[in-house]
Amino acid sequence: MSDSYSLLCYTRVPTSREEANNEDIAFSMHLALRSHLDGSWTPLNENYGIFFAAGVPIAAATPESRRACTAAARFKTDPYTTVRAASDAVAHGAAMPGVDIELKSLKDPHLFRLASGRFAVAATRTARGGGADGSERSAFLLATSRDLTSYDQRGLVLLGPTSGVHRPTVIYNDAERRYVIRWHDDDGHAMRAVCADIIAAVGTTLPAEPDDTAEPIAASNANDVNATSVRRDYGIADAVPGNEIDITEQEAATLIARFGRVYNTGVTVPSMTVSADLYDGEARDLIGSLGRTTAKLQYSDGSTAMRAVDWDAAQLAALADDAAAGRLKPGERRTVRGRIRQTDYPVPFAVERADPSVFAWNYNGEQLFMFIATDDTDGNCVDPNGGRTHMPLRVATSIADLSDAAGGRDREIDLLTRGDRNSEGRAMTGCFWAPELHVIGGKLSVLFMPCFDGPAADPDGTANDRAGKPDMWTGRCHIMQLRQDADGRDLDPRDPANWTVPEPILGPGERILNPVQRISLDMTVIVDSGRWYYAWQQVGSVWIAPFDPGRPTRLTGEPTQIVVPEFAWDNMIAEGPNAFVHEGKIFLIYSGSLVGIDYTTGLVTAPAGVRADLTDPATWTKLDYPLQKSGMYNGEWQLGTGHGMWSHDEGGNLIYVFHNAEYDNGRYGGRDAQVRRVHWSGEGMPILDMQRDEELNPAYAGVTMEIAVR
């Protein structure tokens, strides 16, 4: 072991949602590294949780219905879960968030090493928000981890008989080849238990005995996470420390690469060579090609990125003149100055435009960029603007020109407006939620959710307060496609008449997608190994099903639930899925924690190009913490970041389009669209919140291209 690095685990005292530190976030395990230079402690992941207790499926949830509860896959029957009836979703092989799953939190985390040298975490499991859930009477939560970037939640280790398990600690005694578990009971008495294999102990009961080697504590402090007599000040805001462990330099590097800030450390430009034998047009063409030379940016984690450079036009022109006239001599060297291109997108990009989609599209040989979104004026996305619901589309030749600042809002076209009818002849009166642009079956398509006026009564027979008004619960996924002429050329997408009548997307047997609640929304497309899938939100979770792009209004297989919100940070919903394939892996982002200032972006991944069964929840690997969350961006707070979509800019760089919450002095005013570039880290993870100066250090923005004449 290296003594250069110490790692601290801790929770936090909850402060506020505005600081991304409410109970759902504070009561999770955070990590901090001690500097080997000055001994100070630096929180990882911006002082945000990294390990969250997984929610527990209720006893009435069937094995089939809990298949998407992958974080809790190893959990056995939990004696502390509330006994209640399952939701209607269970009969359809799914789990209903908040009904069939009980969300959990944790406190008093303790890091330790397994006999194998890998990491493990012991913690007191709590109810969501930090209150008692009963397990603290005689058990603690155990999880294992290879490198603390992901966790395998094993379940509860039961201890008994005991009257309370507070501040559990575990060490492996190498000499005796056994684990020693210590804790204090409700009365402050020191207790312990031993076992040879702590993983095998999960779900069993280990006999407890008094621990004569430890001092008792005051009963009043036994369950007090803020007991100052045993807490050290680490200089971390609101920290409630757990324990410290030593880690190796490589282990520290892994944590820094994942949870530290990645920043630009240098830039290189390739040296170029031109021949003195070139003349006239051939010489000008060659010099012109030099203007497309790109720069490679290096980063602190070993990753790189390519960026376009705006080269000095006058210097290139002078060089081209000399080359064309034969004035270049062998052995001569020339230089051309340039500046790395770093487009700054306006913040906000589009006010009160939520669930945004930016799409690069070739319109009969012309490169166009399109922007489409939900109208979220004043936070009313059901019937905004006094009932003048519409689907706004923007079209431009650059992404920047789609923004409000460039007049994009003034040039919006309404593809649909309230009262337009779908293929069933029903008037679409509200919502037009989460429109996404895709090419399906060779046709430009919009996937979206309209809603209709509510019926007099809800399905349970009670009066519907949205009767005769747009009712979000009537909403269903629809598709409309751009028409083509007789020669197969696309018609102008800016003319609403050139789009087909919206059609609902139905499952096998012409059934609606969501038999439990009716509503289905946020549909997107995933293509893998030649197979096409829709993914969307219903029953508060992400579902998937195959379809034929030649008949995109019908599924070709039964929908299955693949992502369920299982953590306090993704709360009661998983929605807004969108996928991108990078280096053999499907990155499917989704959003959780309900719409508002707590909104977050989660991630599940699956292997790409190997014909994996994407309808099997076990194919997908879930990140334990949000990929993106509320935080500082270029010096300003952005709250409620989520519902994003992958896209590309003019230079082919991957961008992330999403919305954040308008929030000022306690007032929520809807959601605004934003655009950022994506950086791929050295370990192959997408970074969605790279700051401007982290992406490109201003000191490296000016570059020089060396040109040798031979």
Describe the structure.
Belongs to the glycosyl hydrolase 43 family. Keywords: Glycosidase, Hydrolase, Signal. By secondary structure, the chain is mainly beta. Helices cover 6% and strands 40% of the residues. Mean pLDDT is 94; it is low at 225-229. It has 6 helices and 46 strands. Strand 31 (521-528) and strand 32 (531-538) form a beta hairpin. A 5-stranded mixed β-sheet has the order 6-7-8-9-13, with no helix packed on it. Strands 26, 27, 28, 29 and 30 form a 5-stranded antiparallel β-sheet that branches. Strands 3-2-1-15 form a 4-stranded antiparallel β-sheet. Helix 3 runs antiparallel to helix 4 (313-324).
Task: Supply database-style keywords.
710 residues, mainly beta, 4 domains, 6 helices, globular, hydrolase activity, hydrolyzing O-glycosyl compounds, Glyco_hydro_beta-prop_sf, glycosidase
Shape verdict: globular
Given as residue ranges, the uncertain stretches (5+ residues, pLDDT < 50) are 225-229
Assign the CATH topology of the largest domain. Answer: Tachylectin-2, Chain A
Distance, first to last CA: 55 Å
Can I get a quick summary?
It holds the Pfam family Glyco_hydro_43. The chain is mainly beta.
Ordered list of secondary-structure elements with their pairings:
Blueprint (H helix, E strand, L loop, with lengths): L4 E8 L10 H4 L3 E5 L6 E3 L12 E2 L43 E2 L1 E10 L5 E9 L11 E7 L6 E9 L5 E8 L4 E7 L5 E6 L9 E3 L1 E2 L28 E9 L1 H11 L4 E5 L3 E3 L5 H11 L4 E5 L4 E4 L1 E3 L1 H12 L8 E8 L12 E11 L2 E10 L8 H4 L2 E7 L16 E5 L12 E11 L2 E11 L16 E2 L6 E4 L21 E2 L16 E8 L2 E8 L2 E6 L13 E4 L10 E9 L2 E8 L7 E8 L13 E2 L8 E3 L2 E3 L3 E7 L5 E11 L2 E11 L1 E2 L5 E2 L4 H4 L6 E8 L1
Helix pairs in contact: 3-4
